[in-house]
Specification:
Blueprint: E1 2-11, E2 14-23, E3 34-40, E4 47-50, H1 52-60, E5 64-65, H2 67-76, H3 78-86, H4 91-104
Parallel strand pairs: 1-5
Antiparallel strand pairs: 1-2, 2-3, 3-4
């Protein structure tokens, strides 16, 4: 079974994450199938970059997002757009909306110090 989950990258005590499609049995930072996005919780607001067309494709094939990935997807409204995609809405319209939401998120590229 394929899971969409977070893979930790970054230095010690400075985590950032890749959103990946990986086999359920693979280790957290081990082998993965495809990189689907990026998540940095250390910026204000958190930086979230997602390849929504690839995520939709994996979810249509049966990939299950992990609990932490569901929280990240809810922050950017991806799961709502996915439900609309399954209902028959045009993919190009949804991707344009996703780009608009990404542009509106005011991301400071500097990470905050913890």
């Amino acid at each position: 079974m394929v899971r969409i989950r977070l893979r930790r990258v970054g230095r010690k005590k400075q985590p950032s994450y890749r959103i990946v499609a990986a086999d359920k049995e693979a280790p957290r930072d081990g082998r993965f199938i495809e990189i689907l996005g990026f998540y940095n919780p250390r910026t204000e607001p958190a930086t979230i970059i997602a390849k929504e067309d690839r995520i939709y494709d994996w979810m249509m094939k049966g990939a299950q997002p992990s609990d932490s990935v569901v929280k990240v997807f809810n922050q950017i409204g991806l799961l709502d757009r996915y439900q609309r995609f399954k209902a028959g809405e045009d993919l190009e319209t949804l991707l344009a909306e996703a780009e608009k939401v990404q542009a509106e998120r005011n991301v400071n590229p500097k990470t905050r110090r913890d």
